[in-house]
From TrEMBL:
GO terms for molecular function: transmembrane transporter activity. This is Branched-chain amino acid ABC transporter permease. GO terms for cellular component: plasma membrane. It comes from the Bacteria. Belongs to the binding-protein-dependent transport system permease family. LivHM subfamily. The keyword Transport applies. It is found in: Cell membrane. CDD domains: TM_PBP1_LivH_like. The chain crosses the membrane at residues 12-36, 48-66, 72-93, 105-127, 153-173, 194-218, 238-264, 271-290. It comes from Alcaligenes xylosoxydans xylosoxydans. Keywords: Amino-acid transport, Cell membrane, Membrane, Transmembrane, Transmembrane helix, Transport. InterPro entries: ABC_transp_permease, BCAA_transport_permease. One of its GO terms (biological process) is amino acid transport. It is a multi-pass membrane protein.
């Protein structure tokens, strides 16, 4: 019925796995921010885009302005861009979001949505919407001939790096004292503060960390995707669906669901391309009807 070669199938699954890695990292950041801070962060896609642009600017624009010695390579950008994006997130939290904690979630959603539109508009004004390219580092160019398919080295790196980051983040929040303090802060902030924990600083740093995860995903995506101001908003709908399916606030749910839906999307592109853009939302509808709290969420 389906005349599809094994190399073509595996290549499409690899594309799905790559997308799933980005879904997992982005949705993990959203899950951390919502699960611990109860903020629906609509700027996540714009922050993802911002990090990709920062990597490109550091590699191509800074040398033109300041000389060749100012060039920021991929490895430096993988550290610096998330830190800068996280710092922007901290500034947003300290100046704007903290004023909305006692209000309905809708206010935070509207605020972050407006900020996202402003960020996208700014990058569109300066760089247009046609997009720019970003080469992977020289050491990760080329690939491996596995016999049954060709595996690009950079895409293999993205998978390994993403899975490592996801597992380390899950361990940090679910298996360490810091994670326990963060969860306790969401349950009873006053009691935790009575024990000498600076809860406001902890909240700010947690938000910054969640935003920085979007930054890491943005830098990793830069050599894979066309960098343009809309690259984040194009992913955001799917990422929110991943968070809902996995369970709001569930880090493991975000990781597993992101990877699984990326692979499912890849399979759909092979066997039924017309459904590839909606398969995630079909799954979301089914999950919401059968398990409203999500696959890994806790019923209240």
């Amino acid at each position: 019925m389906f005349d599809i070669s094994l190399p073509a199938l595996l290549a499409q699954l690899l594309v799905g796995l790559i997308n799933g890695c980005f879904y997992a990292i982005l949705s993990m950041g959203l899950a951390i921010i919502f699960g611990l801070l109860n903020i629906v962060n609509f700027t996540h896609g714009a922050q993802f885009m911002m990090a990709a642009f920062l990597a490109w600017i550091g590699f191509t624009q800074l040398p033109q302005l300041l000389g060749p010695g100012a060039q920021i390579n991929f490895w430096a950008a993988l550290v610096l861009a998330p830190l800068l994006v996280g710092a922007v997130g901290v500034a947003i939290e300290k100046t704007l979001l903290k004023r909305l904690y006692h209000l309905d979630h809708l206010y935070g959603l509207l605020l972050t949505f407006g900020i996202a539109l402003m960020m996208e508009g700014g990058f569109r004004y300066f760089y247009g919407i046609s997009g720019v390219g970003y080469e992977p580092p020289e050491i990760l160019q080329g690939g491996f001939d596995l016999g049954f398919m060709f595996l690009p080295a950079y895409r293999a790196f993205v998978v390994v790096a993403s899975l490592t980051l996801c597992l380390l983040t899950w361990y940090l929040f679910e298996r360490t004292r810091l994670g326990a303090l963060l969860r306790a802060g969401t349950e009873n902030a006053r009691l935790l503060q009575a024990f000498g924990v600076n809860v406001p600083v902890m909240i700010t740093l947690t938000y910054g960390f969640g935003v920085a995860l979007a930054g890491v995903a943005g830098v990793l995506a830069a050599p894979v995707m066309q960098i343009n101001p809309l690259m984040g908003s194009n992913l955001l709908n799917i990422v929110f669906a991943v968070v809902v399916i996995g369970g709001l606030g569930s880090i493991m749910g975000a990781i597993v669901t992101g990877l699984a839906l990326g692979l499912l999307e890849g399979l759909a592109k092979v066997f039924y391309p017309e459904a590839s853009t909606v398969v995630v939302f079909i799954v979301m509808a089914v999950v919401l009807l059968t398990r409203p709290a999500g696959l890994f969420g806790k019923e209240k």
